[in-house]
Amino acid sequence: MTKARQLVKDGHNIVADMVEGMALAHPHLVLEPTERVLLHRDYADIRERQVTLISGGGSGHEPTHAGYIGEGMLTGVVCGGVFASPSTQQVLTAIRLAAGPHGCLVVVKNYTGDRINFGLAVEQAKSEGFKCDMVVVGEDVAVVNANAGRRGLSGTVFVHKLAGAAAKAGKDLASLVEMV
């Protein structure tokens, strides 16, 4: 009998393994492993010339969110547990790393945990002197049942692209917030 190959090494470390694998497989990504933050390899240069964009959320639907890191898109993402929002500390770490003199736009889907944890991180970052703001994407063409609420699943990628392209073109933080 042949030995079965496993896709998952250890269920307890699945997200850590996933973000490490993403960074290894995609040379344009770097990993801050302690808080599971993936960043564009050139994030330090990007933050000096434009507004940066951070997003993220629960893991389990990869390559979202890391698949949207790139030129004219996201600067970094925060990866929470499987179907669980990232902690405030994780998000704050991402903002501290990515934010530069032009500021940082944090793009959040309309999930309660994401709104709370990303929102608290943005407020903490502001109190530390970082220039940052947050937008919540709340459309949802995927939900028929009005009780579930509009989570921003479908439109978030368009917000990443529109805001990312505008940031790359030199728009300031206030303009990005107003635009999206």
From TrEMBL:
SUPFAM superfamilies: DAK1/DegV-like (SSF82549). It comes from the Eukaryota. Transmembrane segments: none annotated. This is DhaK domain-containing protein. InterPro entries: DhaK_dom, Dihydroxyacetone_Kinase. One of its GO terms (molecular function) is glycerone kinase activity. Residues 10-180 form the DhaK domain. Pfam families: Dak1. It comes from Phytophthora kernoviae. GO terms for biological process: glycerol catabolic process. Signal peptide: none annotated. One of its GO terms (cellular component) is cytosol.
